[in-house]
Design goal:
disordered N terminus, globular, about 650 residues, seven-stranded mixed β-sheet, about 5% strand, alpha/beta
Length: about 650
């Protein structure tokens, strides 16, 4: 027994060491991001969309970060000052994220895409969880959250701790969480491949996520982890394919389950593709085990590992999904299936083939594709990443096939996952191809220097172009009106500049706390800045399926056709949901208006806007208080006549 003790303790020690690295790396990244964003905020920068100054400063910072990453790769490859080199790589990678996103947005308090369209409901969710730690729906009162709350809950608690409003915390939290996710991915890569290769792979995948996935920060933090997580998952299945009965691979099984659970709490779609890819791996592993042993019994270990992964994932997922699941199981089933998957843009109607694009990402993808095919039989990394790529393409095909029955799998949002997998493969391909070229030239040092220079310049070229790739999203961050009623480009603010006055009217007339009240408004960005509950969501696509979106919309239209205040109040009394305590209208030529939305899939765009007009006489009653605030009309209801 004593002789076996070191063998049993070794995996535990390694697990503890890895956990310590994860924590330390996350702390370094958080510190770098916080210091960087604080420093950016101390300077009065010009708007990115009207000056090249911030682009110039961004490029300098990116160059410095890449240079430090290059130094860390050199030190790790030479096995010199290894611990210091690892810390250096953590700081440089998180600094690269902070500079690439933080500097272009330094003169605005809004994140990429401002407060427009999808970013509106994301900000609303963060505002809701800043106001309260309860897993409540972002919009509807008395409903559990349907949208995965993990990223938003953490951000809400951080904002609450720092005394910040949710909308104000969105930008720094998004950038900080991406920086942390990038270095966590780096540590995970370091457990799977040689340390210098880990830095190279983590840098490549992080840059791809920054360029193509950062507008969705809660998804981006999962996207940057997908490639190493799939390599980890394949490592969990490999022992079973060889008939192994030892403990090898169980750490990978647990790690994969934890990753899937994390994805479930952050972004459902990325959970779907990750779980599907892992299932594809299990099928392939089962086939290999069956072929190696000639017995179907060899499939059982693969199945056991898959079940363990799924079980761990479910347990982690329940941290945020439990309230919704228990509500449904308790007798409150969804009244409608929801329309979240009713969207088919052009990008979702064709297979993405980035390896044939004439661009740097196209070249990297082409290198990665060649490497995946060429090393499929000899490299576990290539097998894992290749199976991930196959899973993405299968998902695309299934999504396009489902359009025939009126639905999709939102495959277009997986293009960033495909690019991440190909970028990781491309990074490994560049190293292998460089080695082969070097050997073919008798390891001529000049050739090696040329290859290193080409790789470094390519990385710099791609990196400095990321702000241009995100140009439209950055512009919206400067042109939208923020929660303080200002536009960062110093031009006249929009109607949102009156939101503070609307809020004052509501608080003074309704009393209590904001989350005590339900407000009906078509200007739902107001609810993204102030944590009132909404009577109706922005669109059905992000509405809770328990909320009966269509029935609420029909009710609103019916109210506009009533003839007296008494009828309106009576209709509110009979509602199966909490009635609005206030309505925030727009002024219209024929009365007070609300601009609503309905799903018109399979059309693209998939949303039709329509206007409902309420006659002013409908609120000519002492039980209503009508207040005009700029372009808005605020109507509050009281139980008793004034």
């Amino acid at each position: 027994m004593l002789a076996d003790t070191p063998v049993a303790v070794a995996p535990l020690r390694r697990a503890v060491s890895t956990l310590v690295q994860f924590v330390c790396a996350a702390l370094v990244a958080a510190l770098v991001a916080a210091v960087g964003l604080f420093a950016f905020d101390r300077v009065q920068w010009p708007a990115f969309n009207s000056s090249n100054v911030t682009q110039a400063v961004t490029t300098v910072m990116q160059f410095a970060a890449l240079a430090v990453l290059g130094l860390s790769i050199y030190l790790l490859r030479r096995r010199r000052w290894v611990t210091g080199a690892r810390v250096l790589s953590w700081a440089a990678l998180s600094g690269l994220v902070t500079a690439t996103l933080g500097m272009p947005l330094a003169a605005t308090r809004l994140y990429l895409h401002g407060i427009s369209v999808d970013q509106e409901f994301r900000t609303q969710f963060l505002t809701r969880l800043t106001d309260s730690a309860a897993l409540r729906d972002m919009n509807y009162a008395d409903l559990p959250s349907f949208y995965p709350a993990g990223w938003f809950w953490i951000g809400g608690r951080v904002a609450n701790l720092l005394g910040m409003d949710g909308w104000e915390a969105f930008k720094p939290y998004a950038i900080g969480s991406l920086a942390v996710a990038a270095v966590v991915a780096l540590v995970l890569w370091s457990e799977l491949v040689r340390s210098d290769l880990a830095v190279l792979a983590a840098t490549a995948t992080t840059l791809v996520v920054l360029a193509y996935g950062s507008p969705e920060p809660y998804g981006a933090v999962i996207a940057v982890l997908v490639a190493p997580a799939l390599v980890l998952a394949w490592g969990g299945f490999l022992p079973a394919t060889r008939g192994g009965r030892g403990r090898q691979g169980w750490g990978a099984v647990v790690g994969t389950g934890l990753f899937l659970g994390l994805a479930a709490t952050f972004y459902t779609l990325y959970l779907g593709i990750a779980a599907f890819a892992v299932t594809v791996m299990a099928v392939v592993a089962a086939y290999l085990a069956r072929r190696a042993t000639g017995s179907w019994r060899a499939v059982l270990p693969v199945l056991v590992r898959l079940v363990v992964m799924a079980s761990i994932a479910v347990l982690v997922a329940l941290i945020v999904w439990a309230p919704f699941v228990f509500d449904v199981l308790g007798g409150n089933p969804p009244s409608e299936s929801g329309t979240a998957t009713h969207y088919l843009p052009d990008a979702g109607a064709r297979l993405p083939l980035p390896m044939f694009h004439m661009s740097l990402i196209g070249l990297l993808s082409l290198l990665g594709t060649v490497w995946l095919v060429g090393r499929a039989s000899s490299s576990h990394r290539a097998q894992a990443l290749g199976l991930g790529v196959i899973a993405v393409y299968l998902w695309y095909l299934a999504s396009m096939a489902l359009t025939a029955v009126g639905n999709t799998l939102l495959a277009f949002r997986l293009e960033v996952i495909l690019l991440v997998l190909l970028a990781a493969a491309g990074a490994f391909a560049f190293v292998d191809f460089s080695r082969w070229i070097s050997l073919a030239t008798s390891e001529n040092p000049r050739v090696r220097r040329v290859l290193v220079a080409v790789g470094a310049l390519g990385a710099l070229a791609f990196t400095q172009n990321i702000p241009q790739v995100l140009g439209s999203e950055i512009t919206v961050a400067y042109t939208d009106t923020d929660g303080a009623g200002e536009r960062a480009d110093q031009r006249p603010a929009g109607a949102a500049s009156y939101y503070a006055e609307v809020d004052d009217v509501l608080l003074s007339q309704l009393g209590g706390e904001r989350d005590d009240h339900v407000v009906l408004t078509a200007d739902t960005s107001f609810l993204a800045y102030y944590p009132y509950f909404g009577f109706q969501a922005l669109t059905s696509h992000y509405a809770n399926p328990l909320a009966e979106f269509s029935a609420r919309a029909a009710a609103i239209e019916e109210w506009s056709e009533l003839s007296s205040p008494g009828e309106l109040l009576a209709a509110w009394e009979e509602l199966p949901w909490r009635a609005p305590d206030a309505v925030v209208f727009r002024q219209g030529a024929e009365g007070y208006t609300l601009r609503l939305a309905e799903d018109v899939y399979p059309n693209d765009p998939n949303v039709r806007r329509y206007t409902v007009t309420f006659p002013k006489e409908l609120f000519d009653d002492p039980r209503f208080t009508v207040t005009e605030v700029g372009p808005f009309v605020v109507v509050t209801a009281t139980d008793e006549p004034a």
